Amino acid sequence: EVHLVESGGGLIEAGGSLRLSCIVSGLTFRNAWVSWVRQTPEKGLEWIGRIKGAGATTDYAAPVKGRLSISKDDLKSTVYLQMSSLKIEDTGVYYCTWQATFSNYFHRWGQGTLVTVSS
Amino acid sequence: EIVMTQSPATLSVSPGERATLSCRASQSVSSNLAWYQQKPGQAPRLLIYDASTRATGIPATFSGSGSGTEFTLTITSLQSEDFALYFCQQYDTWPIAFGPGTKVDIK
Hints:
The complex is a heterodimer of chains A (119) and B (107). Chain A is 0% helix and 55% strand. Chain A is mostly beta strands and 119 residues long. Chain A binds chain B through residues 44-47, 61-62, 95, 103-112, and chain B through 32, 34, 36, 42-46, 49, 55, 87, 89, 91, 95-98, 100-101.
């Protein structure tokens, strides 16, 4: 069974940066498509970006493009989310999710990690 | 950009009764729609994809229907563990989008 575990959340000042990690198990990690979805009080569930399979190509949502970078380490079966210039409205729970190749719905979700951006 | 709406915002149902949740897309998404369940303090869980296909391990008490812009999630004979928040998500057109959710609570 696919399992995802996020870490790295916490309290961060506005304007700062964060790096979240997501360890994935139960599948061939190198080929996995992994997305980040956040849940905020303001916007609810919001897809923010993904990294796709062996080619490690990335896609980002327009509202965060330019501030977000997703990468992975195949040896550690880990996906990283790096976000800069954090805003109060970035506060929320960040989930990494697994989607089957070429599908755009999310079969498995991690437990989430809370990010709180303070002024 | 497709906007998803869900109704009602809150649905109060007695245990053992049926719940019918609606999801509407601002333009056609064909059958490219998923439903998720979220319990307090937990991550969402995939229930239905392709509008009507149950995900692995999801009981037959959950069923999805619809296509185009109108979709329904039906939960027959609600059990205590079914009282939760339910979201729909379209994945037909980029960017994918989630609905705001329907909370199913105990009447």
